Amino acid sequence: MDPGDPTGCVAYVVGARPNFVKMAPVLKGMRRGLPGHRHVLVHTGQHYDGEMSDVFFDELEAPAPDYHLAVGSGSHARQTGRALERIEAVFECERPDAVVVAGDVNSTLAGALAAAKLDIPIAHVESGLRSFDRTMPEEINRVLVDQVSR
Hints:
Layout: E1 9-14, H1 17-33, E2 38-43, H2 54-59, E3 67-68, H3 76-94, E4 98-102, H4 106-117, E5 122-125, H5 137-148
Parallel strand pairs: 1-2, 1-4, 2-3, 4-5
Helix pairs in contact: 3-4, 4-5
């Protein structure tokens, strides 16, 4: 990515409380480092209650999401599938040069898979954290996201 390219776009995918906390300083730093780019914040709505979502944007002084996908709750498969489908539509519309995902929730996996399928480079914040416990859905998400991240 060329920092001076005014047509560039970076998309950031969040969905749950831990993502909001991790992504706020990343987004702030990226906006400072790439001032000519569009920075598109995509909130899947995995955590959708105001006390689990909106309050963090206010307290962290993060911008309101550009997209709120209203994925909601459900089984891992349903939640990830809904998020994947909706994120893909955003990426097809926005055509980001890179996608940034954080953590290990279903929204993280969906954002990474959507980007990988569209051949968009992926950055994974927190990519080195491992429990090595494959019975944890979060560990599966971490491993899979790391495989498609650059």
